[in-house]
Amino acid sequence: MSFHLPADLLDRPTPYYLYDLNLLERTLHMLQQAAQAHNVQVHYALKANANLPVLERVQQAGFGADCVSGNEVQRALDAGFAPDHIVFAGVGKSDAEINLALTADIWCFNAESGQELEVLNELAGAQGRRARVALRVNPNVDAHTHHYITTGLDANKFGINLSDLPATVELLESLPHLELVGLHAHIGSQITNLSVFEQLSHKINELQTWLEDKGYQLPHLNVGGGLGINYDDPDTDPIPDFEAYFAAFGQHLHRRAGQQVHVELGRSVVAQCGTLVSRVLYVKQSQQTNFAILDAGMTELIRPALYGSHHHIQNVTSTAKTDKTYDVVGPICESSDTFGKGILLPETKRGDLIALRSAGAYGEVMSSEYNLREKTTPVYVG
Ligand SMILES: Cc1ncc(COP(=O)(O)O)c(C=O)c1O
Ligand SMILES: N[C@@H](CCCC[NH3+])C(=O)O
User: How does it assemble (predicted)?
Assistant: First the structure.
């Protein structure tokens, strides 16, 4: 079944993000079933898409929230997530953001350095609280994904390097306003090679044993997010294989009796539910290629320009019987404002509607107003 634009949207001003809430609910249902079967707690990563209609459905499905800024913590609270279902991660939490999360009494801070632990301890003490922390370690495991979204290698800024872990644990012992509740690791995003999660599990197992030898029992293990989706063929795989993802950890993570395992999924929950709908402004034939120039650009969807990523492109209104290849580009004054080169489409003309698929995650949230572009207004169906 391929993408179909509802008739009442054909004349709607473009560009806009269209979200299929039916698909979101089916995805949440599948995720819930797989998570329950493996007794794993899911925190949805708001950074992927923080629109309220999306968050409300995620919250109603019983999942928690993984936040990376004070504003995301606030948005999660506004969407109805209970504070004890909220995790706050991020390599650069400001004092104001930490204070907001402390005041809300969120469940856990994923701390990324000794210095952050010291600040968190001081701010928690000033509020007369004891903050729950998980140490985010940098396990030096290659996620085999784009280097811009690889987060678990020594060269990356994220997490506590393994060589710094002994000193960090020692430091923690001197910080009375913090309570160590677990370990956290997140090695990257758009991971399609699941063997990577096996390697991550082995690393966490080693660290857990090491901490136990020091007398720490960890009630929680948080293995991050990262499950990838099928950008090439969204209609074949509208819902990612959550069961296989959980099974990778189920088989390899040494879980202690009563220990709670957490994941933080973003992309795999929302990516396939969103489509960027755009209109062809001009078709320009140059000596080398045909350009289909859209009214959406890198300002609405930056992933192709930033990561060279591919989103499936469809002409949803053309009735032409012949196909042609196009470089599908946006209107922004940057040559990187290109959604795809040599894309085969039915013959395309001014006014045709173009769907850029799998754009529900890291699409609208990463949009900008560069060139003084207008912010788009999302449409929800289902
Ligand atoms: C710490 C952390 N948790 C969770 C996520 C969500 O990742 P994804 O959208 O790949 O599931 C990210 C993003 O990569 C992250 O940095
Ligand atoms: N923005 C990235 C994902 C980043 C994940 C957060 N660490 C993307 O569009 O693929």
Answer: Homodimer.
